[in-house]
Amino acid sequence: MAKRTKKGRRRHDAAFKNLYAFALMAGDLMEVVLSPALFETLDLSTLERLPAEWFGPRLERRVGDGVWRVRRRGGGSLILPVEYQRRPDRLMPLRVSTYVSLLLEDLARQGELDPDGRLPMVQPVVLHHGMRPWRAPTDLAGVSASGVSDWPGLKLVDMGRVRVEDLPRRNAVTLQIDIHQGGLAHDPEGVLDRLSECLGGPKHRELRIAFVEWIWQSLAPELPKVPKLKRRLREIAELGEFQEMKSFMLKSMVDHWLARGVTEGMARARADERALLCQLAGRKFGGQAAERLSAQIEGETDPQRLAEVGDWIIDCGTEAEFLTRAQSARVASPESAH
Asked: E strand or H helix at 153, and its extent?
């Protein structure tokens, strides 16, 4: 299973953060985390990015990952501080509550509170994109001895475990989560079609480029070394030619394998698919699930059966459920079936 270097992780995190510098991603994130009734009150044409750097009373510098503000129809505003986390952090509610206090004090000093000096509505969000499940507290009550707090808490989006089918359709954040969970592995054409629907047109050119960069940084350790693939994908993203992007991505990989011989190419394709399935299982359920799955599907070449394994990884909510389903279906190598 391929692992990222420290430099690779930094590049991935930078590409991830860059996505949420775009207003469309911020608005779509609001649709994911807010109630439909509250989301309908927002005037997304007023979305603005706020500074995510503050100074405390002793001039200590605090830096968050991102902050967006949007006006509400009928008056007032909503502020969405966003933090990106690779690892669970038990004290995240405390850290974010500090950021929120400094943010509101800064707005008060600048005279940018809501009408009549009222505080705006604030909903902090944590986007967790690590392999381990988030089991840390999401509010101050979870880290205090009394277990009581009137702070509203964090909205957690555990990207590896949230059910994609429960999220809004035609939404760029939903699409990102789908890709994060392995959507390109089992439905590359569908994913690229949805990318075209969400981000088509000249006005989304820069976001398309950022999305392709994030995809590349997310999948680079697993992709075959197709010559000039990254440069070509960026060129296509700039033009917005998603049908060409889809064809080029799939054809380049197939051609790369076939150039080494049809038999070897197909064997490599199946081996890469098995390795990717094990990686996705490990990302969602942990290393033990990946090891057991690797032993079960070793030598499996039936594409339909491998596709079923991919569906189970997405559908199952726990490691136990996934392993039970795989065992009951008797996914195993052809040799073990005899």
From this structure: none
pLDDT value, residue 338: 39
The mean pLDDT values, 10 residues at a time, for the chain of 338 residues are 62 91 97 97 97 73 87 95 92 89 91 90 93 83 63 86 94 94 78 83 88 79 54 65 59 47 55 80 82 83 78 82 76 40
pLDDT attached to residue 20? 96
Q: Rounded to whole angstroms, how far apart are CA atoms 335 and 338?
A: 6
The amino acid occupying position 172 is: A
**Nearest-CA neighbor of 250 among 309, 185, 200, 311?**
185
3-state SS assignment for residue 206: helix
Where exactly are the structural domains of the chain?
Answer: 34-162, 182-337
Question: How many Å apart are CA 159 and CA 113, to the nearest integer?
Answer: 32
Q: How far apart are alpha carbons 96 and 178 in whole angstroms?
A: 27
Look up residue 248 and give its two tokens.
Answer: 């080029």
The token pair that represents 210 in the structure block: 């950022």
Asked if 73 and 41 touch (Cβ cutoff 8 Å), the reply is yes
Q: What does the pLDDT read at residue 237?
A: 66
53 bridge partner residues:
63
- The tally of CA atoms less than 13 A away on the side-chain side of residue 270 is 16
What is the CB neighbour count within 10 angstroms for residue 325?
Answer: 17
Helix (H, G, I), strand (E, B) or coil at 17: helix
Task: Please provide the DSSP assignment of 53-89 as one string.
Answer: EEE-TT--EEE-SEEEEEEETTS-EEEEEEEEESS--
SS3 labels along 88-152: CCCCHHHHHHHHHHHHHHHHHHCCCCCHHHCCCEECCEEEECCCCCCCCCCCHHHHCCCCCCCCC
pTM of this structure:
0.68
- Reported as half-sphere exposure (CB side, CA atoms, 13 A), residue 294 has a value of 14
* Beta carbons of 197 and 171 less than 8 angstroms apart: no
